[in-house]
UniProtKB/TrEMBL annotation:
PANTHER family: LYSM DOMAIN-CONTAINING PROTEIN (PTHR34859:SF2), UNNAMED PRODUCT (PTHR34859)
Name of this chain's protein: Uncharacterized protein
Record organism: Aphanomyces astaci (Crayfish plague agent)
Length: 261
């Protein structure tokens, strides 16, 4: 039979009942709290933490989307190097010579010498540098190099934004706390293990965990549990029969003995 010194050397973490089985000591540590802090480089959104968006990206909901370069129109999931219209132009007017001189005169008065061109029967201002005419009235920019701009694939003049899907993280607990099942609890006393709001004493060296107790061996654990189950069943039977089944039998689970120093 093991001596009481086995438990004495383990800071009285177990309450002795039998040489081969002991109940674990416990203490409560209050109700768990939802973590309120986030790790460095994270920000809080709702009850969870997310990595901050890198430079060049902006948060949209829970995800990070590329910012559109200067001069590009933000069109949701795309950035477009947009076209622009150059108006209705300068058509021939009654009183002009029977040529395009009057049309050019009016266009150059508004846009400057050498900055107009003829398209069909109408004179238009030339497209700005980096743009080419498309039909009579539209100026289209050069095809963008989406990869060089740090964007995704190209569709015509549009570049797809890069999107980083937000990964949720649980918050962090204070230095004197530990996280269990997503909640923060005060740390347990030394040589105790937390499970929710309760801290349980650890078994002595070489002993095995046995539910709310500890046993010297696995066989001892099975035996103790079996005795407890049979004892409860016998008690229920006695209650149902008005103790007619046995006038002397009592609950035979491991008896809790006071621990003496």
């Amino acid at each position: 039979m093991a001596s009481a010194s086995v438990n004495q050397t383990d800071d009285r973490q177990l309450q002795t009942t039998d040489a081969s089985f002991c109940w674990k000591t416990t203490h409560t540590r209050g109700v768990g709290q939802v973590p309120v802090s986030c790790a460095a480089g994270q920000e809080r959104l709702g009850l969870l933490c997310y990595d901050k968006c890198p430079v060049g990206m902006t948060r949209k909901g829970l995800d990070c989307h590329s910012n559109c370069p200067a001069g590009f129109a933000d069109q949701g999931l795309f950035c477009r190097n947009t076209e622009y219209g150059r108006g209705f132009g300068y058509p021939w007017k009654f009183g002009d010579w029977l040529n395009d001189s009057g049309m050019y005169q009016r266009c150059q008065k508004d846009h400057g010498q050498g900055k107009c061109e003829n398209w069909g029967w109408v004179v238009y201002p030339k497209c700005l540098p980096g743009y080419t005419s498309f039909g009579c009235c539209i100026c289209r920019p050069t095809i963008p190099d989406c990869e060089a701009l740090g964007l995704g694939g190209r569709v015509d003049l549009s570049c797809a934004k890069k999107i980083t899907i937000g990964t949720p993280y649980l918050g962090t607990c204070a230095a004197n706390e530990e996280r269990d099942a997503g909640l923060c609890y005060p740390k347990c006393k030394p040589k105790h293990t937390g499970l929710g709001p309760v801290c349980w004493g650890r078994p002595p060296p070489s002993w095995v965990n046995c539910g709310m107790g500890a046993a010297k061996t696995t066989f001892d654990c099975i035996t103790a549990i079996k005795d407890q189950i049979l004892s409860v069943g016998e008690l229920v039977l006695n209650i149902v029969t008005g103790f007619a089944a046995s006038s002397a039998k009592v609950l035979k689970g491991p008896r809790l003995r006071a621990y003496r120093t």
